[in-house]
Design goal:
CATH superfamily of the largest domain: ATP-grasp fold, B domain
Structural class: alpha+beta
CATH topology of the largest domain: D-amino Acid Aminotransferase, Chain A, domain 1
Radius of gyration: 19 Å
Helix content: 25-40%
Strand content: 15-25%
CATH class of the largest domain: Alpha Beta
Number of strands: 13
CATH architecture of the largest domain: 2-Layer Sandwich
Length: 308
């Protein structure tokens, strides 16, 4: 499908979440790519009055370049469903599920997929008991934030409690997850296909916000250094993890490989970054899809899926 045959495209970006700065960069990149191939495109900085913004706008399809709550959690998807407008990425249910790391883990566990042990934290949690159950090595995460915002690694009861309180500034739901020592990988999924796996290497304690968007010493290994059999196995695992959530269109599954070679699912992203540091465009390029072609493929898939 050509850029012209897709119709008028609204690139939704910005939003009101903690990931707003990254979303603006993603949206700018998508908008520029569509402009460069002659598409009829408009950029919309989604604000608190998103419903009136979209209702008043004349467009045929939306490219969702929003990250975090309000853009990646099913809410904007619900608005677009009511407006009967096709949009890129997953629907309401899968978007809401994938945004919630805790419920994502519960579904993966129920499906028999490997994901590290985790506990939901509360004000009166047994901090000593929990950190011991996690082998004195865990990572504390806000359940519904992205870009590693609010995350800290912990080794004792005091650190666990303090990191819970820190994470609570970003989300009322916080989990502590067993730390997996080993190599980190990410698998991009586009239109039902797992793209080449990327290994992430950072000088930071983990692949945090700064390592993702600011640092220049983060390494992206592509090829991933996995054997062919391991790479295929990881791609199949990522597709299962994506499909079991009901996710569609495109996304990314983040994974750790422990010292024994076993893979552990960390989280799913249903509206990944599209910046110059972003992983899905990197994997797509290795697969023979340049940035503009990737954007057009996502829009084409969305249009066909929504029957427009």
């Amino acid at each position: 499908m050509t850029a012209q045959s897709i119709g008028k495209i609204a690139v939704l970006m910005g939003g009101t979440s903690a990931e707003r700065p990254v979303s603006l960069r993603s949206g700018d990149a998508v908008f520029s790519a569509l402009k460069s191939v002659g598409a009829d495109v408009v950029a919309i900085d989604v604000q608190a009055h998103a419903i009136s913004q979209l209702t008043e706008l004349d467009f045929d399809i939306a490219f969702i370049a929003l990250h975090g709550r309000g853009g990646e959690d099913g809410t904007i998807q619900g608005v677009l469903e009511w407006l009967d407008k096709p949009y890129t990425g997953s629907g309401v249910m899968a978007s809401a599920l994938a945004m919630d790391k805790w419920r994502t883990k519960m579904i993966w566990q129920a499906a028999g997929l490997p994901t590290p042990t985790a506990f939901l934290l509360e004000d009166n949690s047994d901090w000593s008991g929990l950190i011991n159950a996690l082998d004195l090595n865990a990572i504390v995460k806000p359940a519904r934030e992205g870009s590693s915002i609010g995350m800290r690694r912990v080794h004792n009861a005091d650190e666990l409690k303090n990191s819970y309180e820190f994470a609570c500034e970003y989300d009322g739901m916080v989990l502590a997850e067993r730390w997996v020592e080993g190599r980190e990988f990410t698998v991009a999924i586009v239109d039902g296909e797992a793209l080449p796996v990327i290994q992430l290497k950072t000088s930071h304690e983990f692949y945090d916000y700064d390592a993702k968007y600011e640092a220049n010493d983060t390494e992206y290994l592509l090829p991933s250094e996995l054997s062919e059999i391991e790479e295929r196995h990881l791609q199949q695992l990522a597709l299962k993890a994506f499909d079991i959530l009901g996710a569609q269109g495109w996304g990314r599954i983040d994974v750790m490989q422990d010292r024994s070679g076993d893979f552990w699912l960390l989280e799913a992203n249903t509206s990944p970054g599209m910046t110059d540091h972003s992983l899905v465009p990197m994997a797509a390029k290795a697969h023979g899809l340049d940035f503009s072609a990737l954007v057009l493929r996502l829009l084409t898939e969305a249009k066909q899926r929504h029957g427009h």
